[in-house]
Write a structure and sequence with these properties.
By secondary structure, the chain is of the alpha+beta class. The chain has one domain: TolB, C-terminal domain (Neuraminidase).
């Protein structure tokens, strides 16, 4: 048996981050905000002065955006919880919380029990790792019986494998052999811990939720065969040795947030996928270079170096090795960066990558409320520094009786441009529009979509501070997006929609479309600027206080009563240190969209991210995900068997990502 040693790759790859790849001269959001403030006569006397001028004077909005007098303001009736650095979950008085379906929970097949010694094949029948975006699909309208569908963004190999015990591994390290190869079963286990879990759950008469063995239970992983659909399918961009006709690919990666279609299917986003690929070609074109793939012989987990010669592994080496693309995997990365549609009610159906929604680091996708006879509209953010926000509008109208995923295969993809007067416009990424012509390097629609970022660069979209989750207010139609942070924005690069240089704390933007959601113009403002007691402002222009200071807004969801749920993702590399110490562990808050009131609802255990939130239809059970508890464990601590978290089991257990089940003691509506 080969000996395991500690394996590492470049820190940027290891963290899942892309190297900066946007070299365009497009305007920064911070520049636009600076100009907007100057237009209103606000002096630049420091961040607090600038923010106060912006938030307290109110931005010039149309009546359609500002006047919502006929809508009821949602109630937020709980006592806020305090900041916490403890290794547990805290919810308000009068609420109950328990952990549920941690990584490794059996759901299908022979129901293999959780153990670190579980095989790669066992993992294909267990809940994946690093829980993220999530939705509850009720069965027959029930609030006590349904399918919970959740993403698994990535893995922490040191906790995944028993073979890692005793090695000096930080959160990004992995076991490898002395020759640099990796154990093939460990790689299969990591692939199968990625992807999506679909599991039937049911509430017992005693109120506890449990997994139900059911034919609908299944895993979608980094190995699952998938169909390509839309303008890019069957083009030369995606032809590979596996699929010479460009119609199929295998697997989905780094699934962060999600979306739910008006026809009740699930969309999984492919976010930081590019780091998984090696490519030793000297010349790498924009289809990969603009997404952070550089000439290198390494990938995030070195899957291409598995010690078994099999294309399930070698496809992660995108180097040109054959006489044509049909003889190697040079095009394999072009089959990633899409939104993946999964029908949870059809376990035999193949997932479909919908290419007209664009190719980038999709954080997730949100749909505007579907209107009979009108186009389907969906929004998505590109979660990387200085990247963009997009919108898709279908060509065909929504008809509830016949609607399906094909509506996402024809339409127009737009990218957002924010102006310093509070207006904005959607720029079409379509052949012949805004100079997207063969003469300018965009051959056709497929070429534009494979190169979505390059097309957005060309038309002049606004560079944003890492667009994350979005949500649509069901009452006003306003669209919200979290902009989590951007510490690489320098002085002078500020913009009205991205107002801070070295933006460590993030903010939330919102806009109102002109006319319908399919319109090409909008008006925007900032909903909250996150930060500590000094460098923050709420909608009323006040600093945040002990009950609601937060930073790095990420997850976002607006419930049917219009409460805005905000989740945070302070990086484990800085959590509870320096300027971030005041925020404690990651948390979830809830905001009133009318008044801007914000209260902290939940704090999580050590080293985690709070992500993914949904309720049952009756809003009396809430599901929330806790991702990577214990990620702050150092390499030395891990080697000594000492972990920074033992959540959810406690004692000496290894930490495991899991879902929270939250209810009120009086059986009432969550958050009210």
């Amino acid at each position: 048996m080969k000996r395991n040693i500690s394996g590492y790759v470049d820190p940027i790859l290891a963290d899942g981050d892309e190297p900066l790849s946007n070299a365009s001269n497009n305007a920064y959001f911070g520049d636009i905000l600076d100009k907007r403030l100057s237009r209103r006569g606000v002096l630049k006397g420091g961040l607090a002065t600038v923010i106060a001028g912006l938030m307290a004077t109110k931005l010039p909005l149309t009546n359609a955006f500002a006047a919502q007098g006929s809508l009821s303001s949602p109630s937020i009736g709980f006592k806020p919880v305090a900041i916490s650095a403890a290794d547990n979950v805290v919810v308000p008085e009068g609420y109950r919380v328990r952990s549920f379906i941690p990584w490794g929970t059996p759901i299908s097949g022979d129901m293999p029990a959780f153990t670190q010694n579980a095989s790669g094949d066992d993992q294909a029948h267990q809940v994946g790792s690093h829980h993220d975006g999530m939705h509850f699909f009720p069965l027959n309208g029930s609030s006590t019986d349904g399918l919970l569908v959740l993403n698994h963004e990535y893995v922490e190999p040191r906790f995944l494998h028993a073979a890692a015990s005793g090695l000096s591994l930080d959160r990004n390290g992995f076991p490898q052999h002395e020759d640099g190869s990796r154990d093939s079963d460990q790689v299969i286990k990591e692939m199968n811990a990625h992807g999506v879990t679909i599991v039937r759950i049911r509430q017992s008469e005693g109120g506890e939720w449990e997994v139900v063995q059911d034919a609908l239970n299944r895993r979608v992983t980094a190995q699952t065969p998938m169909r390509l659909a839309g303008p890019v399918a069957e083009t030369d961009h995606v032809k590979t040795k596996y699929s010479p006709d460009g119609t199929m690919t295998r697997g989905t990666l780094n699934n962060c947030a999600h979306g739910v279609t008006p026809w009740n299917t699930y969309l999984a986003a492919e976010e930081n996928w590019s780091g998984y690929f090696a490519n030793e070609d000297a010349d790498i074109d924009r289809r990969q270079a603009r997404y952070g793939i550089e000439t290198r012989d390494t990938g995030r987990y070195q899957w291409h170096r598995a010690d078994r010669d099999d294309e399930i592994f070698t496809r992660f080496d995108a180097s040109s090795k054959g006489a044509s693309a049909a003889e190697d995997y040079r095009n394999e990365p072009h089959a990633f960066g899409w939104m993946v549609e999964i029908d949870p009610m059809a376990p035999e159906s193949a997932p479909v990558k919908r290419t007209h929604l664009g190719r980038f680091a999709h954080e997730g996708v949100i749909f505007a409320p579907a209107v009979e006879g009108q186009p389907v509209v969906a929004y998505s953010g590109d979660d990387a520094r200085f990247e963009y926000i997009y919108k898709f509008v279908s060509s065909q109208p929504y008809q509830a009786a016949t609607a399906d995923g094909s509506l996402l295969d024809e339409g127009t993809l737009y990218v957002a441009k924010f102006n310093d007067d509070g207006s904005g416009e959607w720029l079409a990424l379509a052949p012949g529009q805004h100079g997207l012509t063969p003469d300018n390097g965009f051959a056709d629609l497929a070429d534009i979509l494979v190169n979505t970022r390059s097309a957005a660069d060309f038309v002049g979209a606004t560079k944003m501070d890492r667009p994350e989750w979005g949500a649509v207010d069901p009452g006003t139609g306003q669209v919200y997006f979290t902009l989590t942070n951007n510490t690489r924005r320098e002085e002078g690069d500020e913009h009205p929609a991205n107002p801070r240089a070295n933006n460590s704390f993030g903010h939330i933007i919102r806009w109102q479309e002109e006319g319908s959601h399919a319109g090409e113009r909008f008006e925007w403002d900032l909903f909250v600027i996150a930060g500590d007691h000094e460098d923050s402002r709420d909608l009323a222009g006040n600093s945040l206080d002990d009950d609601n200071i937060f930073c790095s807004p990420d997850g976002l969801w607006i419930d049917p009563d219009r409460r805005v749920w905000i989740q945070t993702d302070i990086s484990e590399s800085v959590m509870n240190t320096g300027i971030f110490e005041v925020f404690g562990n990651n948390q979830m808050l809830v905001a009133n969209p009318e008044t801007g009131e914000i209260k902290r609802f939940l704090t999580g255990p050590v080293g985690q991210e709070i992500t993914g939130v949904v309720t049952t239809p009756d809003q009396r059970t809430m599901f929330v995900n806790v991702q990577h508890p214990g990620a702050t464990t150092t390499a030395e601590e891990f080697a000594n068997g000492s972990f920074s978290s033992h959540w959810p089991e406690g004692g000496n257990a290894i930490p495991r990502s899991a879902t929270l089940v939250i209810t009120r003691e009086d059986g009432g509506i969550i958050g009210a």
